[in-house]
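User: Reviewer 2 asked us to show a designed sequence for the structure in our supplementary figure. I'm pasting the structure tokens here. Could you produce the per-position amino acids so we can include them in the response letter?
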């Protein structure tokens, strides 16, 4: 009886601690979201720095190379996004008129077939003003996110310089036998490898999508390819969101047939890369169930906004890592993520 009461008390205290933690995250979301973005990219860049130092370069030189590379990527993205979004905003009324024209032509064809119900459905689906608002909202989100990329870049560089020393100080303060420290040391290389492969796959997805859009004659294919790269960090949901703007443009410029081809193209790319190539590259050791991925997207989006949506899988894995480090919460981690097979466990560090 006493044991059951103690277990219940620990469960209530854990739930209260989680509620307080998420409340604090929500209150600090305007800052914490971009801090976590910087932590994420710093973890991805750290193996590159180690590799460069292993080739005989000094730590400062390796850091300088990484900083220049990151700055070049951010500057290139800023130029691409700035020019493309400026042109899209200038042509937004044109796209709305094209959507209205395509909508009217489609309704006329349905009307000749006597499909009045389908005509009303098509009119709702091809509403020029609504689609224009969707496109404008996505454009505003991209611009706002990019505006903070410079600060994220600076924080990434600072974390690459100070991060290892900060972790060592935390290890000494908590003790080298602390379950969280021990678990992080053993699993963090695998997490870095997982998201490194995820980044490689995202690049393949973005390039493949951009090439498909170029072949279909959709405007700003490079911009949508870059958007696909970033949003592909969110499986299922991210790819769907990234495909909305080019689908709307294809609809406006070329009609429903070309828009359907855009959707079909990203579906084929997604099936091949996500369901065939990626599982063979990384195994299933850190593959979250689809339900957990889907729910975590909305949880982190609500807590941290766009950065939370982008990092939903990464942040969820960190939470699961913390839960798996302690006996009283390990059951929850085991519930949310499946146990790897023996072969996959052998591949882990």
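Assistant: Here is a per-position design you can include in the supplement:
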């Amino acid at each position: 009886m006493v044991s059951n009461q103690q277990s219940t008390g620990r469960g209530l205290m854990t739930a209260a601690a989680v509620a307080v933690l998420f409340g604090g995250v929500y209150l600090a979301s305007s800052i914490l979201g971009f801090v976590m973005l910087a932590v994420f990219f710093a973890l991805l860049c750290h193996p590159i720095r180690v590799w460069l130092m292993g080739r005989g370069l000094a730590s400062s030189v390796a850091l300088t190379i990484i900083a220049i590379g990151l700055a070049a990527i951010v500057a290139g993205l800023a130029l691409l996004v700035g020019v493309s979004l400026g042109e899209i905003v200038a042509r937004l009324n044109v796209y709305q008129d094209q959507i209205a024209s395509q909508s009217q032509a489609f309704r006329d064809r349905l009307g000749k077939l006597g499909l009045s119900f389908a005509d009303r459905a098509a009119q709702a689906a091809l509403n020029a003003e609504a689609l224009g608002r969707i496109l404008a909202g996505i454009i505003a989100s991209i611009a706002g996110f990019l505006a903070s990329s410079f600060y994220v870049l600076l924080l990434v560089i600072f974390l690459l310089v100070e991060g290892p020393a900060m972790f060592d100080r935390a290890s000494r303060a908590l003790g080298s036998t602390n379950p969280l420290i021990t678990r992080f040391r053993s699993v963090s290389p695998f997490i870095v490898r997982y998201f490194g492969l995820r980044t490689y796959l995202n690049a393949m997805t973005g390039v493949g999508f951009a090439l498909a859009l170029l072949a279909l004659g959709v405007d700003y294919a490079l911009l949508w390819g870059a958007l696909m790269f970033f949003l592909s960090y969110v499986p299922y949901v991210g790819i769907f969101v990234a495909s909305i703007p080019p689908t709307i443009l294809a609809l406006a410029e070329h009609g429903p047939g070309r828009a359907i081809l855009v959707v079909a193209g990203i579906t084929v790319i997604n099936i091949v890369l996500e369901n065939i190539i990626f599982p063979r590259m990384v195994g299933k050791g850190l593959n979250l169930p689809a339900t957990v991925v889907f729910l975590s997207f909305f949880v982190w989006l609500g807590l941290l906004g766009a950065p939370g949506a982008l990092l939903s899988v990464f942040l969820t894995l960190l939470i699961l890592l913390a839960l798996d480090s302690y006996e009283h919460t390990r059951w929850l981690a085991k519930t949310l993520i499946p146990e790897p097979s023996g072969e996959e466990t052998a591949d882990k560090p």
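For the response letter, you might also mention the following. The longest helix spans residues 179-216. The CA atoms of residues 43 and 76 lie 22 Å apart.
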